[in-house]
Amino acid sequence: MNNNKAKQLIEDALTSLTESLENGQSDELKRYLQTMSKFHQYSLRNVMLIALQKPDATHVAGFHTWKKLGRYVKKGESGIVIIAPLVYKKETVEEDDNRSNVTEINGFKGVYVFDISQTDGDNLPEFASVQGDPSRYLEKLDNFISANGITCLLYTSPS
User: Fold this and answer.
1) What is the CA 6 to chain-centroid distance, rounded?
2) The predicted structure's pLDDT at residue 70
3) CB-hemisphere CA count at 13 Å for 29?
4) Are 106 and 139 in contact (CB under 8 A)?
5) Of 35, 80, 75, 83, which is closest to residue 61 (Cα–Cα)?
6) Where in 18-98 does DSSP place strands (E)?
7) How far apart are alpha carbons 102 and 69 in whole angstroms?
8) Would the CA dihedral through 80, 85, 86, 88 be positive or negative?
């Protein structure tokens, strides 16, 4: 998929979302927000591209990233196109002969990513889970906040 087609997909998605919101329908917005919550490292445009092409995607990464994680893309799977920046490192020399590297974005290109459902291989490591009743720590947290003079607009003491 070329850049123009990807840009058109994004424009169509934004138009559809705008029309839905103007008609008082928020289901499409909810769907985009749910998708965005799964892909915190992707831009809104890339999340929209992912949602349009594979709405049920949960873990998305590039071919080589999956390979590093001990997984491989299944034969015959179609990639999900997203837009990636073309980043170049440029060395600069200042007056006092100090050299520093500056990164510049010189355009964008379409790249393919794959959802975990399109891969096979090693299981991904799971995040640690918290168990128990956290309310038993509320009093300790309240005492800590009070003792350290911390003020927070969102926090209200239960006392």
Assistant:
1) 18
2) 86
3) 9
4) no
5) 80
6) 60-62, 71-73, 80-93
7) 30
8) negative
**Per-residue confidence (pLDDT) for residue 76, from 0 to 100:** 95
Cα angle value 152/158/159 (rounded, 5°)? 110
Question: Alpha-carbon distance 109 to 46, whole Å?
Answer: 12
How far apart CA 90 and CA 100 sit, in angstroms, is: 8
Which residues of the chain are under the pLDDT cut of 50? 155
What Rg, from alpha-carbon coordinates, does the chain have? 23
Backbone angles phi, psi at 84, to 5 degrees: -120, 140
Question: DSSP code of 155?
Answer: -
Cα distances from 88 to residues 8, 43, 84, 91, 107, in angstroms, run: 26, 20, 13, 10, 10
Alpha-carbon torsion 72, 122, 83, 6, what sign?
positive
Two tokens at 100?
Answer: 């520093």
| Predicted TM-score (pTM) of this structure | 0.55
Cα separation, 100 vs 17, whole angstroms: 43
